[in-house]
Amino acid sequence: MNEGLPDIYEQYLRYLEHTREISRSQISRVKRMLAFLNDYLENYHLSLAVLKIEHLDAFMGKFEVAKATLRIYRSLLRGFLKYLYEKEVIGKDLAPLLVGPPLFAHKKPPKFLRPQEVKKLFSSLKLATSVDIRTYALIHLAYSLGLRPIEISRLTLDHISFTMGELTIKERKTKEPTILPLPKQTVRAIAAYVFKARPKTDLRILFLTHSGSPLRPERVAGTMKKAMEKAGLSSTAYWLRHTYAQNLLGMGRSIYEIKEMMGHQNIQSTQRYLYIDTERMRKVLFNETL
User: Fold this and answer.
1) How far is it, in rounded angstroms, from Cα 32 to Cα 42?
2) For the whole model, what pTM was predicted?
3) Are residues 258 and 172 in the same domain?
4) Burial of 169 from C-beta contacts in 10 A (0-12 / 13-18 / 19+)
5) How far apart are CA 217 and CA 171, in angstroms?
6) What is d(CA 252, CA 149) in angstroms, rounded to the nearest whole number?
7) 212, 201 contact by CB (below 8 A)
8) Would you give the distance in Å from CA 78 to the centre of its chain?
């Protein structure tokens, strides 16, 4: 039945037939895929032991078939890759890395600011009035720490340690307090607001209106949106939060670290925030060097 394929391929087919109880028609489809893979590796003088994800990408690129068919081929190949990893034929589980562009390369542009847009935004900010100084501090917190408008509105003077350069967020969706390092520029922006622009009051809430009442979340978001519109950017306050996530990704932080720093309850929320092309996804989530 499986004549012509190396032993490890035959072992996998027997495993599917006897252990997984896969139908014979499905096994025939798998066998054809394995035969294609074996031919490809032999043509390029590659062994399974040295297989890398770029080899698999090149192999999948040989198929000129419909996208739906290509998804089926990837699924069949992922099963074999997982088997190879479990049998210690390959040293890394390549199955999760075999992901097609439709999952991660969205046609719709992700809603975050590119470096030139970030530069444009900050160069447009003024420090002429107390409102300007407050806006400057709000945008720094959203950009450098990815805080939600509601989290910014809840900050108090007691949450900030100027000497340690840290910010404690008491209330997050994770229900756990988070301590985040404050970049020096953000520390300076907050200090400028506290000592030069914040109304004199006994209230401990950090950001206040001109009359001295707490700044509500919608006012925080509206202030940042207005500042971005003045800079010629059609964006919202949450774009700064998305930009923060992208910056963490670009720095090589794992998606699990990003989840904690963003204050997400589950990893799926973090994945939706990130625009991840296939190569970057592999490097950051799975430490795969291409």
Assistant:
1) 15
2) 0.55
3) yes
4) buried
5) 14
6) 26
7) yes
8) 23
Please report whether residue 2 resides in a domain: no
Rounded to the nearest 5°, which phi and psi values hold at 250? -65, -25
Question: Residues 85-122: pLDDT tens digits?
Answer: 999 999 988 888 887 654 444 444 457 788 899 999 99
Residue 161 lies in a domain: yes
Residues of the chain predicted below pLDDT 50: 1-2, 102-109, 276-277, 288-290
The CATH number given to whatever domain includes residue 24 is 1.10.150.130
Number of domains in the chain: 2
Q: Which helix (H) or strand (E) holds 189?
A: helix 184-192
Does residue 227 share a domain with residue 94? no
CATH of residue 255's domain is 1.10.443.10
Both tokens of 279, joined, read: 């190569």
Helix (H, G, I), strand (E, B) or coil at 63: coil
Going from the C-alpha of 197 to that of each of 95, 152, 168, the distances in angstroms are 55, 17, 22
**Residue 69 belongs to what domain range?**
7-104
- Give 3-state DSSP helix, strand, coil % of the chain, rounded to 5: 60, 5, 35
Q: What is the pLDDT of residue 113?
A: 85
Per-residue DSSP letters for 76-105?
HHHHHHHHHHHTTSSSS--GGG---HHHH-
Q: Quick one: which H or E segment has residue 187?
A: helix 184-192
Separation between Cα atoms, residue 83 and residue 94, nearest integer Å: 10
DSSP states of 227-244: HHHHTT----HHHHHHHH
Domain presence at residue 279: no
The answer to whether position 286 is within a domain reads: no
Phi, then psi, of 21 in degrees rounded to 5? 55, 45
Which tokens go with 23? Answer: 């139908």
- CA 214 – CA 217 distance, rounded (Å): 9
Same domain? For 162 and 43 the reply is: no
Please tell me whether residue 168 adopts helix, strand or coil conformation. Answer: strand
